[in-house]
Structure formats: structure tokens, C-alpha cells
Amino acid sequence: PGQEREDFRPRIVPYYRDPSKPYKKVLRTRYIQTELGFHERLFVAVLTSKTTLNTLAVAVNKTVAHHFPRLLYFTGLRGAKVPHGMVLVAHGDERPIWLMYETMHYIHQHFGSDYDWFYIMQDDTYAQAEQVKALVTHLSINQDVYLGRAEEFIGGDEQARYCHGGFGYLLSRSLLLKLHQHLDSCRNEILSARPDEWLGRCIIDFLGITCVSQLQGQHYHTYELAKNAEPEKEDEEEFQAALAVHPVPDVTLMYRLHKRFSRIQLDRAYQEIQDLQMQIRNLTSLTPTGKAGLTWPVGINAPFLPKSRFEVISWDYFTEQHLFSCPDGSPKCELSGASKADVSDVIESALEQLNSRYQPLLRFSKRQLLNGYRRFDPTRGMEYTLDLLLEAVTQKGHSHVLVKRVSLVRPLSKVEIIPMPYVTEATRVQLVLPLTVQDLDFVANFLDMFAMNTLDTHDNALLTLLFIYHPYDAQRVSQVDVFAGVKAMVGELEKRYAEVKIPWISVKTEVPSQVKLMDIVSKKHPVDTLFFLASVWTEINTEFLNRCRMNAISNWQVFFPVHFQEFNPALVYRGEQAASSSTDFLRDGHFDRHSFAEACFYNSDYMTARTKLAADILDRDEVLESMEVFDVFLHYSGLHLFRAVEPGLVQKYALRSCNPRLSEELYHRCMLSNLEGLASRSHLAMALFEQEQANST
């Protein structure tokens, strides 16, 4: 503050390079956050011991750990068995002062440059994670902060205070950076029986900063739990406002505290919702639309209004036993799994709301769900309409059966960004192309597109051909090789691109099972190979290969793109010139959701899933004929299956040859793909109309 205060205005610094000095390539950071110097908000350290690692520390991990962005446990026990889901740092010395010294040194060395705030607590402390996170968002990082429950030193200076370790304390990054250089001196010069007193004395003696319980208008509220306390009966304001509660001597009490504080936070949230809804009602009357503009539920987005009949969101009908809009397209299927739990929860919520509104005059109980409807509205959430057969009982005991229609909404809650492993576009892609005799007419176009979009551009991609011989053709291969023409084309490519080798694998089978073919290819490549399983109609391009690299993540996710299938030009254009604009491109085809021929995945993930499949089917190899690679990952991998439309993967129209030797489901799916790929409804209607006109004349 003052006249000499610097005015923080952005200014453009012009780039200048000295022409006399050699040019050096600038190395950029991986993330813009690192380059701009941003830090994560909060790091939490929990001090534990040999006796409490498997009890209190586990309780802390199950109650509040998932609310903090980063939490580590520190102990002096060496070689301790780490409980599941916990990150433990063992220093090898259980002396309390030594544990505190090593912990502060470790935090500075590994996290000092990554976080703005450091919260230190013990495993016999219950901390309200959301309150602690809210506290640091209201504090300035420009000050040296030592915040906690201030306690006097025994027989020490009246002005100096240290932060009681049992109630946790907060250190700023600037204080930690200054403190680190004095830790060795503190270890050698300061004697204390308590680690929190030792740390407080170190900060006071070398930095001149004392512990405070209030800073920048923010209070660090704590609550000391009495012996034999009952958390469910604690209603005083001091308890409800506490950021940290201490001491918590046993695991059961830790869980009871968590339940109590969760209920307090939930009640506060409901009260805030009611207050906001009341404010919305009061303000809506002042708007131009008046009370007519008030949506239900209050505060939730209004339902989506379709602009045409094609945008209407359909309702799905269900009962307590069956669903009448099934994922596989069948008209009726059993209600099970998440859908059954969803319906049960909605009915229970409806009864709870009815009873809370009409009690004590009436008490409702469910007889039967007559009709149920639900739909997902992307602007607000899942909507439900229920027709319930209810029994209403009055205060005098009289009962009456009635039917009541209720509407419910499960609104979209807080959106979370799912953390994903880091991947790059530099990974080599191994294309695998299975070929049968029926595919020979399309191989030349595939190889031309592969050469133009990958070999000419020096893309990091390789190709392996899989020749599938019918047993009859395999016997005559020495006289007549049905794939001789393809092998000749491969030879021409290898001559044109001297550094390129295109290997091929020959397989003899009557039923070209996708899983059996992939088994052969998998054994001939390293485990870290990124496969792209292609079809002969696929037109390879760099844009899609990069998306294949980004969407297939080892030990995390596999990618099954939905290609864009062009319609039959004879039906679409009927002799006219094909249009080339982007709108016509989207109109003259469709995304073929019945095809699972293309896939991007890592060999290691396939081998893991295939091993589980082998243990399940034992020696029944005929089961493999009814499966695709998609089924293997879906049922036996546990990985994320990313299935999305891929506009960069375009296929020209071709009538596929469906092998009747495959399973009924695969054959049916292949036939549906052929039929839906003919043309759109309007094109088919026009073709029928012209045919009828021609027949009538």
C-alpha cells in the first residue's frame, strides 16, 4: 500500500532473438499449468503410528481421504504392510520429533513446489474436509501462515503460541520454503517431548511467526471431544462449526463423527436449497413472464423444448418387473441391475415425499406400480412419471385405496472431470487387415489409401495382412494362389518404399472368427503393441490414427469407433452426379452402429482379457465363433470401452458377405448392417415410388 504501489497491468513483451547467437529450440512444458506457475491448492499429511496404522488411519482414509485432492500417511515404522488404498511413507524411526522432522523435510522435497497449502493432522483427528478446503480458498497465499488451535508453551513466553497437533494445523507454501533451511538447526538445538511443540518453537525461534487461530477474517474452529461423548447428541454451535475434532480414540467413534457431520452438511444443503427456491419464487413474480415462468422443480432448468418432431425425447415405459425399451432392441426384457435399483429408489422417494406432505392426516403405503415412464433430458436430468396404486390410512385407522400420479426429477448433479492417463500421438500403430476371397476387389483401394495417407506422410504406422484361406483354396495354393494378386501389390509397395516391410500371415479356416484370428496376430507382436483392427473398406487417414492413439490407453481404455457408411449411390443419386459438400456428406450415409470390425487396443490388454476368457470357456473353442473382440473386452477386461462415432473413418458402399457359419447374432448384425446401409428412408421411398410409376406405365 502507498504511493509506490506497483500497478499490475499486463504488457506485451516483444520477442527478440540475438542474430549473433545460435538458435536453440525452446522446450515447452507438458502442461500449460506448469509453464504459468500454477500450483495445486491443498496437500494433506496424516501422522500415524504402528499401533494405529490399521485402525484409525484406515478410518481416516475411508471417511475423509477421498474429499482431499492429495493425502499421504507418514509413519516411523519401517517395512509396514500398507492397507489397501493408502499411500504410506515410512521413515524408519518412530521417535516423535524425528518423525516430524523427516515428514517436513519430505513434504518440502517432494511437494514444496506443487502446492500452496499444507495441512498436517494426526490419525486420531476428525477433520471436516470440505470445511478445510473452503478455508484455504479464502486465505491469501502471499503471507506466511501458521494457522491452527493456538496453545501456550509450558513455562514459556506468554506471547508465543504453537499449534496443537491433535487439532491439525495449516502451513502456507511461503512459510514451508523459509522453514526448510532451519530444520537441521531445530533438530539439533530444540528439545521437546511433543512434536507439535517442537515444530512451533522452530517456527517461532527462526522465523518469528506464532500460531494464530484467526487470520484474514477466517476462524479455525475446533472442538475437544469429551470422554464417552455421543456425537449424535452434540448440537451446540461450537461442535457444528468445528473444522477439526480431537481426540478420537477408536474407529467406531470416527465413523459416528463422520455420519453426524455428514448429516449436518446435508441439512445445511437442504436448507440452502429451500432458501434459494423461496428467493426464486419471490423474484419470478417480478419478471416479464410472471409466475408462469416458474419451472418445476424450482431452480432446475426447464424441460427441453423440441423444435421439430425429430428432436422429441421419447419416454421409456416400465413396470416393477419389466422394461419395454431394451438395449438390444427387443420389445420387452427383465428389469435388473442398475435399472431395477433406479426404479426401486424412485418409488421409495415418491412414497417418502407423499408421506412427508400429508402426514399426520394420511399415511400412504404402496400396493402396486401401475405404470412407469422415464426419459433422460440432457438439459436437466432423468424425469419420471409414476402411476401408483396406494393405500391411504387416516389418523382414525380408516383405509382407502386410490391411484395417484406423481412426477419426479433426478437432476444432473455436479459434473466431474474423470482423470485419464497421459498419452501422446507419437505411438506406433500396428494395422491388422483380415482378408478373405470376397474382399479381393477392395484391397487395391485400401493399399492405395494406406500408401498415400501413411507411407507418403511418414506416419508411424505399420501394416500386417491376414490371408484367410478356405480349406479348398489352401489345398490348391501351390497351383492357384487366390491371394497372388494381393501379394504382388504388396511387393510393388515394398519396392516403392524401400524402408517399408508389409508382412502377411496365412490362416486356413472355414469360420473366420475374429477372436481366433486376433489370437494368432497377438502372439506374433510385443505386448506393448497398439493394434488397429481394420476392415478392407476402411480408408486410413492421419486424423483417425491420431484419435486411435489418443483414445486407446494401456490398462485403462479400448476404442471401438463407429465408422461412417456411405449409402448405395445407385439408390441415392439414381444416375445423377454425386454431391461433394459437407452437408451432403452427412446426408448420404449413416454411422453404422451394427459394425464392430474396427478397434484400437493394446496387445497387453487383449492378452489379459483373453486369459480370463480361456479360463471361463476351458476347451470349448466353438464358443469363440459367436464372439468378437468387442465381446472379449466387454465381459473379461474391466477396462473402459469407448464407443463413439468417428467422422474421420469413412467407408464406401459395398455389399458385405455375411458368413452363415458364424453365430446367429453375428450373422443377423451383418445383415442389418447391409440393409440399413442401402439408403435412407426418403431415398428408399423415392426408389419405390419411381418403380411403381414405371410399372404403372
Shape: globular
- The share of residues in helices is 25-40%
The residue ranges in which pLDDT falls below 50 over 5 or more consecutive positions are 580-585
Report the top-level CATH class of the largest domain.
Answer: Alpha Beta
Largest sheet: 6 strands, mixed
Task: Tell me the number of helical segments per DSSP (H or I, 4 or more residues long).
Answer: 21
How would you write the strand order of the largest sheet?
Answer: 3-2-1-4-9-6
Total domains:
3
**Cα-based radius of gyration, to the nearest Å:** 34 Å
The separation of the N and C termini measures 95 Å
Q: Residue-averaged pLDDT, rounded? A: 87
* Share in β-strands: 15-25%
Beta strands, count? 27
CATH architecture name of the largest domain: Alpha-Beta Complex
Structural class: alpha/beta
Query: Could you name the CATH topology of the largest domain?
Result: Spore Coat Polysaccharide Biosynthesis Protein SpsA, Chain A
Keywords: Glycoprotein, Golgi apparatus, Membrane, Signal-anchor, Transferase, Transmembrane, Transmembrane helix
Family: Belongs to the chondroitin N-acetylgalactosaminyltransferase family.
GO molecular function: glucuronosyl-N-acetylgalactosaminyl-proteoglycan 4-beta-N-acetylgalactosaminyltransferase activity; N-acetylgalactosaminyl-proteoglycan 3-beta-glucuronosyltransferase activity
EC number: 2.4.1.-
Structural account:
This protein has about 700 residues and is of the alpha/beta class. It folds into 3 domains: about 30-245, Spore Coat Polysaccharide Biosynthesis Protein SpsA, Chain A (Alpha-Beta Complex); about 315-410, Nuclear Transport Factor 2, Chain: A, CATH 3.10.450; about 430-685, Spore Coat Polysaccharide Biosynthesis Protein SpsA, Chain A. The protein contains 21 helices and 27 strands. The chain has a 6-stranded mixed beta sheet with strand order 3-2-1-4-9-6. α2 (about 55-65) packs parallel to α9 and α11 (about 440-455) packs parallel to α13. The chain is globular. Mean pLDDT is about 85; it is low at about 580-585.
